[in-house]
Amino acid sequence: MPIRALLLLLLSTAAQAAELELRVTPAFDTAPIFLDSLRYPLPGGETISFTRVSLLLSGFALERPDGSWMELPGRDAWLDAAARRTSIALHDIPAGEYEAIRFAIGPDRAANDGNPAQYPATHPLNPNLNGLYWMWQGGYIFLAVEGAFRRGLDAPSGFSYHFARDPNRTFVAIPAPLKLNRDFRSGLFLDLDLAKLFHGLSPARDGTATHSRDGDPIAGLFRANLAAAFRLRGIAGVSAPPPAVPIKPLYLPATYTPYPLRISRFFPLPDLPADNPLLVERVELGHRLFHERLLSRDGTLSCASCHQPSEGFSDPRQFSAGVGNLKGVRHAMPLLNLAWKSSFFWDGRAPSLRAQALVPIQDHAEMDSNLGEVTARLAATGEYPGLFARAFDGPAITREKIGLAIENFLLTLTSFDSKFDRALRGQVQLTPEEKRGMTLFYTEYDPRTGQYGADCFHCHGGALFTDHLFHNNGLDDGADPGRFKVTQNEADRGKFATPSLRNVAITGPYMHDGRFQTLEQVIDHYAAGVKRSPTLDPNLARHPLTGLPLTPADKAALVAFLDTLTDPRLMPAGNVPAERLGAAR
Fold first, then answer.
1. To 10 degrees, what angle do helices 384-391 and 280-290 make?
2. What end-to-end distance do the CA atoms of the chain give, in Å?
3. Are 189 and 236 in contact (CB under 8 A)?
């Protein structure tokens, strides 16, 4: 075909391209579900609730009137009820009439077996975005359904069903008469009926967990039920979202030096702030401000006073002391690998690092300062106006620029060179005890299938050893409301951010209130100290009331494995016992 004719054909096809928005709503029978609501009856006699419904879709195709299928390659979707992600826009579809839509639950084999670190930060298959990647054995969770159930007057228990692995990838075809044209954005509305997905399943009878091991009957039941669980609710026109507004960098200086951020090849790509690019000049300024005592009212404290670099950017005290020796009520979190987080503080009240950085400066129990006074103090020095001029578009010092500079510095605080990392790279070997601890860490507790692990990975999985979510881990009955104080949602009462377990051997004490001094005490909590409450995480609520039956040898192995997560760059001699220092190096 002549080039001119080919160009005309391509332009004609582009002009006729249509868009289809697919929306999937988790429902029970005929109505959309309410999350965290113990109200849905199962035929086996249980009443259940759902705290998580999250799934990956791929393999989209549309059926032509002649019965052939037009594949739509390169489309992946992550849908999640709690995150309110319920739709995917399918672009560049040839205009015309279609009879049905088809898609798969789960990515294809190449994506499932491939390197998850290859995907951009906002891609549906980026593990840091979807939280559905199994690091210990590779591959994604295709569908995660978690919640609680009660039978009669019994106390509620939890369930955690993770449908995964290549043989279980399931195609669903939905008859749907579509007439697509370029002037009309069509919306295809589907329900994911959880009543049909759970057809024939009784958590009390059949088990409270599946991780889709070979021959697992719960995974087999899900595979059999999935096609019938999706149904067409309707087809209608929908409004196209407003065009994205390009994000421009804030206050760029005339000349600057990009900062080369180093991360592990096993880490997912982070979603760095587009309006605050990493610059050497800005990172250096943020470093100075992080250690600057002029940020406090009386000139005695800096950020580093409570987030000490020699302690893994944490605080060895249970509660940090502010100006006037006032004590807070929560432990200072470690400040490492923050580039992968999207909310900050134990309760997630800060939506960005720049916002988080300004809170302690003004908190009466911390630096107890005034941002107007802080900017005046910095401007009165001989050096800071010049440093701000190098990092920004001029010497003016503002509260916003202070936050941007500290954010820039904090984004560079990465940790990925522990013994565990070097073992992944084949440079060292874990000891038999460390390997045993790793097996326990990454194995569920499910006697039904003969699995007797410690179940740590549900909240602390992935390359970053955190899911960046909020959980109630059974510390108490909600004396500190945690996330609830921010959202005012009763389902969030007693929930706190999941801390990363990287460098955990040197960042104690532990938990949001620093109540545990040692890792042994933390493990004892999960083995025997979990307190039941309505918002207890389902992965803990499904364990025995007496806790996980871990032996002393099991606990020692877990500690040995956790010690391997320490980055030697952050571990000065004397910070942990000598035997742990040797184990982590």
1. 140
2. 64
3. yes
The two three-digit tokens of residue 74, written as one number? 């390169």
Q: How many CB atoms lie within 10 A of CB 29?
A: 12
**How many secondary structure helices (H) and strands (E) does the chain include?**
20, 18
DSSP state of 456: -
Closest CA relative to residue 495, chosen from 462, 547, 537: 537
CA distances from 480 to 63, 314, 335 (A): 54, 21, 22
* 227 contacts 460 by C-beta, under 8 angstroms: no
What letter represents residue 52's amino acid? R
Question: d(Cα 503, Cα 422) in Å, to the nearest integer?
Answer: 14
Q: Helices 353-362 and 371-379, interaxial angle, to 10°?
A: 90
Strand-strand pairing, 141-151 and 46-63: antiparallel
Q: Tell which residue, 529, 563, 565, has the closest CA to residue 546.
A: 529
Cα separation, 114 vs 219, whole angstroms: 23
Angle ∠(524,525,528) on CA atoms, nearest 5:
75
pLDDT digits (tens, 9 = 90+) for 187-245: 999 999 999 999 999 999 999 999 998 999 999 999 999 999 999 999 998 888 888 88
Question: What proportion of the chain, given as a percentage, has pLDDT over 90?
Answer: 85
